[in-house]
Amino acid sequence: MPSSQEKAQLAQTDNEIFLALKGEEARQRSGLELIPSENYAFPEVLTLLGSAFTNKYAEGYPGRRYYGGQENTDRIETLARDRAKALFRAEHANVQPLSGSPMNQAVYLGLLEPGDTILAMDLSHGGHLTHGAPVSHMGRLFNFVRYKTDPATGAIDFDHLLAVAREAKPKLVVCGYSSYPRDYDYADFKRVADEVGALTMADVSHIGGLIAADVMRNPLDAGFDVMTTTTHKSLRGPRGGLILCKEKFAKKIDASVFPGLQGGPHMNQVAAAAVTFRLAALPAFRDYAQQVTVNAKALAAALMERQVKLITGGTDNHLLVIDTVASFGINGAEAQEALDRVGLTTNKQVIPDDPNPPMRPSGLRLGTPAPTARGMGEREMTEIGGIIAETLAAKGDRIAEEKLAARTRALTSRFAVPGL
Ligand SMILES: *Cc1c(COP(=O)(O)O)cnc(C)c1O
Question: Whose CA is nearest to atom 10 of ligand 1?
Answer without folding.
Answer: 100
